[in-house]
# Entry
Amino acid sequence: MTTRLVVQRLGFLALGLAALIVIAPILVVIGGIVVRGIGAVSWEFLSAVPRAGMTEGGILPAIVGTLLLTLGTAVAAVPVGIGGAVYLAEYARDNVFSRIIRLAIVNLAGIPSIVFGLFGLGMFVLFLRFGTSILAGSLTLGIMTLPVVISTSEEALRAVPTEFRTVAASLGGTRWQGIRTVVLPQALPGIVTGVLLGLLRAAGETAPILFTVAAFYLPRLPRSIFDQTMALPYHLYVISTQVPGMPADVQNGTAFVLLALVLLMNFAATWIRRRFRRRRSW
# Structure
């Protein structure tokens, strides 16, 4: 066996060990949540409202609130994010203005989530007078999600070969027709992945909704976008730190439901990405 082959195998072994070191703690955490939480999950736990100071009943308002906030985040962030990505990838020239936009996107991605919450409180809750509501929380989470959507969508658009644009133009189509009918469908797997990654982050955030929408205890479902709502991340924080005598089963069951929701969205993102990649022409 040559020295070169030995070094190569040692390198592969080191990379495998590094991957194992990263994955093992994640698997331990997920396994612990599943083992401790799955026994607390029942139909009543998923479909009933909380009662007796959240020590009994279920977490339906928190589940519905999380889904509504995720949907509202998608409505607020996806059109603007994809539109901004199309502009940066297809129309913007390399000048001071476009560089300032990209710098702002990078800086926006590095802002702590608690700052987004304070911004949402000042802008949407107080200045625009939306109050602590689903609308204010969704807009706040949408702004927080924008950098992920824009960056991943722009990279997906830039990855589409130039030949697709050239052929569309040679057939007499306008630039927008080429983007809409050729480039966007080919970039769709990367765009969908970026969108779902952003929504996954929004679904698990606590700090932004703490100031803009989350209710401590609200044993009913919201009736409009101007209502407060419970949400799984904040509900888990509340029952773990703010409610004395909370049964461990309720805490573990809530953590399991939140984890299951996030993993389900991850699996959905993977399935959608694979499905669209099979349709690509390159």
Notes: DSSP finds eleven helices and two strands in the chain. The first strand starts at residue 50 and ends at 51.
